[in-house]
Predict the 3D structure of the following.
Amino acid sequence: MEVIISKTAEEASQLAGALVNNAVRNNPSLVLGLATGSTPLSLYKEMVKACRAGLDYSRVRTFNLDEYYGISPEHPQSYRKFMNDHLFSKLNIDLKNTHVPDGPAHCATYEAAIKAAGGIDIQVLGIGSDGHIGFNEPTSSLASRTRLVTLTQQTVSDNARFFATADQVPRYALSMGVGTILESKKCIMLCFGANKAKAVKGAIEGGMSQFNPASALQMHPDTVVFLDEAAAADLQLKDYYRWAAANQPL
Ligand code: F6R
């Protein structure tokens, strides 16, 4: 993994945004894997800014990592609605090219659609405070595929802030599997804030384990992790990551 530590989440998001925007510039029909949540919002702002400045997103195809199960796409907290509101409605993207998992019966079709698109070129990831990526909670098989999953109590309580009451938070979700994510050509994982420090430490410096699904990225040949100082706080080799970032091999 390449680890890039920035002073702030804002700075990290600008770097990640430049990476995604450049990739779209080089390949206008890029296939992007996307995440929801608080973390990628600043990255999405960078994409919107570039699009408003003339970058063409009209042929870009997207596949979201996950969606709650048990609420409709029109529900204010559905991930489809999140993506439409925060990103798709602000880009010149064709909504027909955007995909969000849609019911347990369609998991195999979702995987087939990713394959038919030629695979995911860049997968954007956040990390859960329990180490999840997508909704692959601890104990998810590192070979898992898109499927219906049960959320942990930790994730339900982390996500309760978006719902009026805790009992409205869905207990189930559809999620790309860890195996699906690992097939992406490139992964960029953004992790911000002190509440992610422990999961980040496990993912980057812990042994690979289904107890921290993000640690499976250690097996991925091209993953860049963008951190702010708070999320990097527990890393043992922090100074090395900074040194390596400043001394890239040619
Ligand atoms: C959401 C997703 C999740 C989030 C993670 C962090 O599509 O894939 O894995 O990335 O739960 O969420 P935030 O960014 O809200 O801290």
In short: The mean pLDDT is 97.
